[in-house]
Amino acid sequence: MRRTILIAILMVLSVLCSSCTGFSPVTEDLMQPPKLTAEQKALDDALRESVTQDFTLKYPKSGNFRSAYVYYNLDDDEEEEALAFYSIGLSSTARVALLDRKDGTWRAVNALAGASQEVEFVAFAHISDKEQEDVIIGWSSEEESEKQLELYTCTDGKLERLLFRDSAGKTDFNYYDSYLINDMDKNGLDDIFLFSRDERNRLESSWIKQLSYDSSSNVVRLYSEHPLSDSISEFVGVTAGRINERRQGIFIDELLYGDQLATEVFSLDKQGLLTPVISYGTRGDENVSSLYEMTLRDVSSDGKDISKEAVCTDINGDTIIEIPTSRLLPGYKKQKDSEALYLTEYKQLKNDNLERVLATVINRAGGYRVNFPEEWIDEVTVFAQPETSEWRFIEYNASREDPFSDLSGELLRIRVVSKKGYQDKFLEKYTELDTRGMFTYYAYIPEKVNSSLSIGAYQLSNQNPNRIFTLL
Ligand SMILES: [Ca+2]
Ligand SMILES: [Ca+2]
Ligand SMILES: [Ca+2]
Fold first, then answer.
1. pTM of the model
2. Do 348 and 322 contact (CB within 8 A), yes or no?
3. Are 192 and 149 in contact (CB under 8 A)?
4. For the segment 368-399, what is each residue's pLDDT rounded down to a tens digit?
5. Cα(181) to centroid(ligand 3), Å
6. Which of 65, 76, 279, 360 has the fewest CB atoms nearer than 10 Å to its CB?
């Protein structure tokens, strides 16, 4: 328990440190190991005793462990060992040391040089052993242009590196941009999936690679790999989960050059090797689109900040992963219009087709979404009225030159009111939906709706399990 608290304190401190980088003159002071408990001091003393030269502690940049000292039980006793990350003197290569406690005294057991200058992340998983967890470390260069993943195991009390080798003797398949650790074939050992953009020497520039431990030769092998789209600028989401009731998959959301998103999905075949789900022409029909083409969509949020609503997730809680696609709401024509609003459709893979399970409009700035009843799809559009912080939902009238000028078919308004802002006096016909922080959400349903698409108050009620209003 004490250690858990300690780790929590260290994590908070390291987050504080990283968040003040760049504008605090005391960053260097904060980056020094914080003076904490005797246990922390003991680890620092043990490392100092073994290294002897000046060293700088290194803090993992991402993942669940953000401290330069990480406690974890790495062997079959009940006690925790510790890992320490640091670099020595002017050497730019980061190192990892294993520390162990014998008779109440911490001491450094051994240390290994990392693959690069910085520690990207540290994680633990059953790669080589069902009983004992291995250490996974991502190493990155200072400018983060190259990241390499390495695996370590605790053998006879010492930290050892697991070697990477494929059948042709190649060892450099550990470069990655994103990674996923998952026991996809449910055999008790975790597999590693790397997503990389290899600009250097191959025609297709992006790959998914499947790495698994081979016990017969005690190495990590490249079991299979598959090219991805050649226009990926960034992996914005990699998710392992259920494609359907029987099948597991890896969902890859790709940001493409030209501000579009696409999704590719892979599963494992009978041999346990990577196989794409719906690749071009897999049904013997040249006109069949690939999943990539079927999921191609505009980035509907501004800039590089891709929202979690734009990537694969289990949106409806049925444990199956949905793929979001998006298209312009009726009346919006200009593809790149920054004012354009989109209908987001979450789809499941069924018999190699995409089937919609949810259609919704997402107001990211307002922090809510409104699910479209089935009959609204292609019939209802939304326009934003910033002066009242409202989204107005209207029946789309294609005969109007300006489809948003005809409000006779208005079906719903959602308004966000800030406690700090101007208090609108005309809220008496509005119903309060929800509150969050200093924001209150209101809905207004026009009384005389001249439309067959009208909705009732119950569809917005929090008593309704299928309520159409949801906070993000
Ligand atoms: Ca142990
Ligand atoms: Ca496995
Ligand atoms: Ca789902």
1. 0.84
2. yes
3. yes
4. 999 999 999 999 999 999 888 999 999 998 88
5. 21
6. 76
